[in-house]
Each structure stands twice: as C-alpha cells, then as structure tokens.
Amino acid sequence: MISKKMEEALNKQINAEFYSSYLYLSMAADFEAKNLEGFANWMKVQAQEEWGHGMRIYNYVNEQQGRVKLDGIETPQTEWDSALAMFEAAYKHEQHVTSLIHELMSLANKEKDYATEIFLQWFVTEQVEEEAHAASIVEKLKRIKESPHGLMMLDHALGQRKED
C-alpha cells in the first residue's frame, strides 16, 4: 500500500507520461506534414512507448491499492522549425521527465517506500536510454546540418524503428 502523498505524485507522473505520448504524436504529425515519414515513425513508436510508461504506473498504483486519478492533458506544441529543433525539444523534454522520476525516487526513499523505490528503478534506467537516443539523433542532425541527402538518409534509418 502506498501513502496518499506517493499516490498523488504517481498520478502526476501518469499525466506526465501521457503528455509525453501526446507531445510525440504532435511531433509525428509535424514530421508527416513535412513528408518525413521515417522521423514520423520514430515519434509514433516513441508515443506508444510513453503511453506504455503511463500505463505501467497506472497499473502499479492500482496494485498498491491506490486510486488512479486522471487529469487533463496539456496541449502540446504543434509545429517546429526543423527536425533539429524538434529533436532538441524532445531531448529537453526527456531531461525534464528524468528530473520528475528522480523526484519520485527521492520521495519514495524519504517515505521508506521500498516497493515503489524498486518499481521506479526501471524508470531510472529507462530514462538513461531515452536521453541517450534523443541526444544521439540531435548530434546526427547537427552533423548533417541542412543536407537534404543526409536528412533523407536519417529519415530512412529512423523509419526502421519498431515497437518493442
């Protein structure tokens, strides 16, 4: 069983994960509007992954006899100036999510909620991967600059991403 304070914090994280999914879908839509289907695919897979993260927390709260309370999802940005600007925003967003996960870990530790601390360890590890993937694509986009050929090669490569 989790405390009310932890329950509230986890409910906020569910909302943050669902917002992440919504943000990545918005990015996918912008890439599709720009005819960059590979980039759009990468973002759609990411959106599914984020939705899964939210559901993982949703299920955990229920397993711990807590009460899931869903909140409204903030409207995400809908357009970006370039693929680089979009992935820089994605990377910055992942850094923000990492800080939220760290806050949850701190709260679990403070409350001596060892079950939640162990549960959250998966998210700590996942955020290392999330940040690394976004940062890697940012660096590739910086290297290719405005090269149409480079952009199309990266678009093709990102189109290969599949759901886990």
Automatic annotation (TrEMBL):
Q: InterPro entries per the record? A: Ferritin, Ferritin-like, Ferritin-like_diiron, Ferritin-like_SF, Ferritin_DPS_dom, Ferritin_prok
Gene Ontology biological-process annotations: intracellular iron ion homeostasis; iron ion transport
Its annotated compartments are: Cytoplasm
Chain sites annotated for binding Fe cation: 17, 50, 53, 94, 127
Q: Which keywords label this protein?
A: Cytoplasm, Iron, Iron storage, Metal-binding, Oxidoreductase
> What is this enzyme's catalytic activity, as reactions?
4 Fe(2+) + O2 + 6 H2O = 4 iron(III) oxide-hydroxide + 12 H(+)
Q: Which domain of life is it from?
A: Bacteria
What cellular-component terms does GO give this entry? cytosol
Q: Fetch the CDD domains from UniProt.
A: Nonheme_Ferritin
EC number(s) in its UniProt entry? 1.16.3.2
Any one Gene Ontology MF annotation carried by this entry is: ferrous iron binding
Signal peptide start-end: none
Residue ranges occupied by any Ferritin-like diiron domain in the UniProt entry: 1-145
Keyword check for Metal-binding, yes or no: yes
Quote the Pfam families the UniProt record gives.
Answer: Ferritin
Q: What is its main location?
A: cytoplasm
Q: Which family does it belong to?
A: Belongs to the ferritin family. Prokaryotic subfamily.
Q: What does this protein do?
A: Iron-storage protein.
Recorded protein name is: Ferritin
- Which organism does this record belong to? Vecturithrix granuli
